[in-house]
Amino acid sequence: MAKVIIVTDSSAYLPKEIVAEYPVEVLPLTLIWEEKEYRDGVDISPEEFYVRLSRSESLPKTSQVTVHQYEEMFQRLLDEGYEVLNLGISKGISSSYDSALQALKSFEGKSVEVMDTKLVSMALGFQVLAAARAAKSGASLVECKKIAEEAYPKIGVYFTVDTLKYLAAGGRINSAKRLVGTALNIKPVLEIRDGKIELVESVISKKKAIKRMVALVEKGINGRKPLHISVFHALEHEAAQSLLAELKESMGAEEAILSHVSPVIGAHVGPGTISIAYMAG
């Protein structure tokens, strides 16, 4: 039986030490800023990106993984004897999925599968890990795809941003909703629902937004085990680290991962973002 490998993209932002443990390949999305291109997480680090973004008057643009990048990756992995399962950023957020489908046409009859995950960030990371762990244990391509599909309803993700201006500028959320974050210290609580960014509600202060996210996560988990949880952030390392430790202990998580919001995703949410993702059951 051929080995299976999972292809994902940098939006998942799995920590590099975890990626190194499993059969996973990561394709970088592209950041375009002041006429220069940066490979997400390769040419620019999250810390460097968010410091620069917080001081910059210009907003970066982002670009999907290209058809050519997928074609090169799929061909290399097939040549190395792998069967390939592509689990990339949600179709509702990026055109990368369309690029992957276009590339797939060059591999008809070959062992390459492409899924619309309807996920992003560490929510996607948990789906990738579920499939990659199965692949490492010898599961077939069909089995790995089934495991990824079965992981989807077990996953949830919530986040809060300091301002909706980045989401509004990038068209990732109804621009009329940018007003939600402008009055006083009102903060939005958002989620990824059916592959798109949706506003859940607004609360007064970031502290209350985080408290509300925790309550929503607890409701989504509903006591199910095993529990995998992640807190990931944009220039909020201490707050994220503290929150992750608190959640791991209070919820009895068997896996807790601290990560960053990748620069390409960060271009749409901005500095100060804090997110919680989980996979339960």
Outline the structure in words.
With 281 residues, the chain is of the alpha/beta class. It has helices at 16-19, 46-55, 67-79, 96-104, 121-136, 141-151, 165-169, 206-221, 237-251, 263-269, and strands at 3-9, 24-27, 30-33, 36-39, 61-63, 82-88, 112-116, 155-160, 186-193, 196-204, 227-233, 255-260, 274-280. A 6-stranded mixed beta sheet has the order 10-9-8-13-11-12, sandwiched between helices. Helix 5 packs antiparallel against helix 6 (141-151). The radius of gyration is 18 Å and the shape is globular. It starts with a strand and ends with a strand.
Please describe the topology of this protein:
Layout: E1 3-9, H1 16-19, E2 24-27, E3 30-33, E4 36-39, H2 46-55, E5 61-63, H3 67-79, E6 82-88, H4 96-104, E7 112-116, H5 121-136, H6 141-151, E8 155-160, H7 165-169, E9 186-193, E10 196-204, H8 206-221, E11 227-233, H9 237-251, E12 255-260, H10 263-269, E13 274-280
Helix pairs in contact: 3-4, 5-6
Strand order of the largest sheet: 10-9-8-13-11-12
Beta-strand percent range: 25-35%
Strand tally, please?
Answer: 13
Distance between the termini: 29 Å
Shape assignment: globular
Largest sheet entry: 6 strands, mixed
Number of helices in the DSSP assignment: 10
What letter string, H or E per element, gives the SSE order? Answer: EHEEEHEHEHEHHEHEEHEHEHE
Determine Rg (CA atoms, Å): 18 Å
Structural class: alpha/beta
CATH class (first level) name of the largest domain: Alpha Beta
In terms of quaternary structure, the protein is single chain
The CATH topology of the largest domain corresponds to Rossmann fold
Mean pLDDT: 93
Low-confidence stretches: none
Proper CATH architecture of the largest domain: 3-Layer(aba) Sandwich
